[in-house]
Amino acid sequence: MTLTVFRAPLLAFALCFALGSASAADKPPGHAIASAHPLATQAGLDILAAGGNAFDAAVAVTAAIAVVEPTGSGIGGGGFWLLHRASDGFETMVDGREVAPMAATATMYQDADGKAIDRASRDGALSAAIPGEPAALVYLAKKYGRLPLAKSLAPAIALARDGFAADAKLVKAIEQAQKRFSPAARDIFLPGGKVPTVGQTIRQPDLAGVIKRLADKGLRGFYAGETAKRLLAGVKAAGGIWTADDLHRYTVVEREPLVSHFRDYRLVSASPPSAGGLALVETLQQLEAVGWTEGQDGTSKHQLIEALRRAYRDRAAYLGDPDFVRIPMAMLTSRSYALELAKTIAADKATPSASLPPAPTGAPGGTHTSHFSIIDADGNRVAATLSINLSFGSAYVPPGTGILLNDEMDDFAASTTASNAYGLIGSEANLVAPRKRPLSTMTPTFVDGPNGVLVLGTPGGSRIATMVLLGVLDFVNGANAAEIVAAPRFHHQYLPDIVQYEPGGFSEAEVARLTAMGHPLKALDSTYGNLQVVLWRPASNQLEAAADPRGVGSGEVRLLRR
Question: Which residues are catalytic?
Fold first, then answer.
C-alpha cells in the first residue's frame, strides 16, 4: 500500500492532558510514545491498544523503526533497552549490543606499520559486528511482554512487505550514501537505479521474510536456518569473517543500570558498555559541586563545558566492555571524585584539554542512531537507543536478506592513537577482541523528581550524552516535553578541544564571554540529534510526548477511560 508522507510540524507533540483531579496520580492517564518516525510510533500504539504493555510496544517500535528509518538502526544492528517495571519498581538494562566476531583481532584494521586503515572499519562486510537486535526482541517479548512475539512484530512485517512512503530526510540520506551501497542495497534504496522521490513507496520483501522467520521461530529464525545461511554466504563473499558459531553464540545480557542523583532528582541511565550514563553522573555531580545555576552571562555554559571535558576524558581513559575490562565504577561515580574534578575548574578560564592531568591509568579509552521513549498506562517505561552506527551502517546488504549490516566495529579503537568517525580517541581497553562489545555513547535515561517522570534519549554519536544532559537540565528547570526536544544544543568531548554549537546554541553575549575565557568555539551550519521525550506529571496527572523538530518523528498520547 502507499502511505501518505508525514511532515512533522515544528513542535510535534501531544501534551497537557489532565483528567480533572489535582491530586497525585498513581498511574498515568494513558499511553505516550515518542519515536523517530510516525509509523513506528503508531506501531507501538497499536500494540498497546491490543493489550500489550510498554515492553511489547518496545518490540513493535524497534522492529518498525528498523524498516522505516534504515539510516539509524535495524535488524542488522543492536542497542540498549532501559526498562522500568511499575508493579515492583524493577529496573534493568537489556544489552543487545553487537559483538565482535570470533576471528576479530586487535590489529585487523591496521596496516603493516600499525596505523589504522582509513574506512576499513566503516564500509563493507568486514566492518560488521554480530547483530544483537533480533535476540533482544525475542528476549523482551518472552521475559517482559504480555503478547506473543509474532503479534508485536506484525506491524514491521507489514511495513516491510507492503512498503512505506519515503520522506524528504530519507531521500536526502539515500542520495548522499548511494555510492557506498552494495548491489543488494542499491536494489532496495535505488529502485530502477534512481534515488527515490519524496512519497515514493519503498518495499523490502526480503526483510519482511527475515522478520517473519524471527516471529515464527524466535532465535532460530535469525541466528540459524535460512536467514543465517544467507547472512553467512553474503558476508563471506564480501570479505567478512562471520561464522555460524558467531551467530549461534550471541547472547543478550541484562545489566544493572547506573543510578545517581542530582539535587532532588533520581536518574537511571545506561551502564557500560555505554559511556553515556557515566558521563551524565560525572557531569551532574561536578555541576552540583560548583553550585551550577542556569544563567545568561556565559558562566553556566563555561561550567558545563568544563564538566563535560573531564567526563569525556574519563571515557577515553577507563571505559570498555565490562566483561573484558575492569572499570573503577565506584571511584568514577563517587561524589568525592566529582569534587576533586570540580576543584580543577577555574571560575573564568577554560582548561585546555592537553593540560588536564592524565588519567591514573592508560586503560580504556552517530549521528545515525535511533531512540524511542514509552510510558504505558500502568507506569511501565522504556527508553531504547538503537544503532547500526553510521548512516545505513556498513551499506552492505547480504543478498536475499534485505538486512543492512552495522559498521559497529568502528566503535572499537582501531589503534591506541586513532579516532573513530565521531572523533573519539582510542585506547587499549576498547581495542578489538573476539566476542567483545564495542564502547558506545547511547544514553537511554529515566529521571524522577519534583517535576515528574521523564523518559528520554537521542541518536548523535559522541554528542548523545551531551544532548541527554541538556535535556535533563531543561527538565529540572521546568521545561515541558516540547521545549526539551526543541532547545538549541552545544557539545564538548575533551578531544578535539572544540566547543561545537548549533545555530542559536549560544547568545552573542555567551559567545563573547566564552571566547574571552579561552574556549575555542565552532558554529555549526546545521542542527543535529533527534531527541525523543515522554513526560508524566503525577501531581497534575498530565502526560506529554514530543519528537525532535529536527527530524520527522512523532510524539503521541492516547488517553484511557478507567
Answer: 369
